[in-house]
Amino acid sequence: MKISVPKETHPGETRAPLTPDSAAKLVKLGAQVEVEAGIGAGAGFADAAYTAAGATVTNDRKALLSSADMVLRVRKPPVEEIALLKSGCIHASLLDPFNEKELIQKLAERGVSAISMELIPRTTRAQKMDVLSSQANLGGYEAVILAARYANKIFPMMTTAAGTILPAKVFIIGVGVAGLQAIATAKRLGAKVTAYDTRPVVEEQVKSLGAQFFKIDLGETGQTKDGYARALTEEQVQKQRDAMKKTCGDSDVVITAAQVFGRRAPILVTAEMLNAMKPGSVVVDLAVENGGNVEGVVYDQVTDRNGVKIAGIANLPARVPLHASQVYSANLTSLIEEFWDKQNINFVLKPDDEIIKGCLVTYGGKIVNEKLAAKPN
Ligand code: NAD
After folding, report:
1. N or C: which end of the chain has fewer CB within 10 A?
2. Confidence class for position 374, pLDDT limits 50, 70, 90
3. For the chain, which residues make up each domain, given as ranges?
4. Marked catalytic residue, from 133, 236, 240, 329
């Protein structure tokens, strides 16, 4: 079985879908692994390291794609490259499936079996394949580093001969995987951290990291069976904004990481709340790629609003590309290992397996995923 790995082409994408270490694992399974020259340049992996791992390196991207039984990528394929793939080719990448219906239709028409890595189920068995978690974790870390870079003060408390410096106050809104890592990172830097999430189960996790949980009584909120937040009513969102305004005003750093799976991110930090913040403070919006949690955030820019810096930097994991590639590649490799037939040296796509059922979006010429048909709640 030939596994082909083209270089990412999206501007600013530094991550590699496959590291040399993972390539070696796939070669050991018996796969023929071929990568495009320069695949690891952004993340610090030389072509020679792939060759040493037993992969071949090519400059012929078209031939690489058209000979593939399986293609691995970080991001969705450029639409013009779909026609290069063989019918029956397995394609595993992030696909942004709720916003890319046309692309998915084209993958189906081409007979490609497309796996959307965003849709890997959040189950214990699939945890090692969960790219949303592996990347969000690094995004949460990087958000704090970015905030520290732009803040006009340090994070830790310091008692010096020149007086005492008080710790920075950091408020984290949305405590999923990214938010939890943001709490842990801000705590490591010595900040005083407060966090809020609509899912009540999060309170214990926040406290176990030594942060304070900010309580707001919104009535029924809860979570879906996959552990995702439910969308709030407009009335609940307004109540939440009113409650959070004072805490935003008291904070030196606000980090937002609130998402509702398959929907635009809710706007939680409004212009009114930004007006309440002190000049010199910083807001980092981790939800910017999904529309943003902060009113007026500018995609991939750091803007200044009356002295408050608003960072809407996209793709934060790509700022730590070595580790982001390491874990993304490990996720893909775990998926391949899980469904690898050692005797026939083949990835066996099992459409009825609960993991494949969750993440397979096209198969046998059709769009097959239930989540794409029904808008998630
Ligand atoms: P996510 O990126 O979808 O959302 C981030 C956070 O935003 C969530 O905690 C959500 O509750 C919160 N949020 C949504 N609306 C909000 C609002 N109005 N105000 C404040 N917060 C709001 O979430 P995620 O990081 O992908 O993780 C979702 C859940 O899935 C978590 O409970 C996580 O522990 C769980 N999870 C389970 C597994 C597994 O079992 N294998 C793997 C990964 C994640």
Report:
1. C
2. low
3. 2-119+321-364, 137-319
4. 133
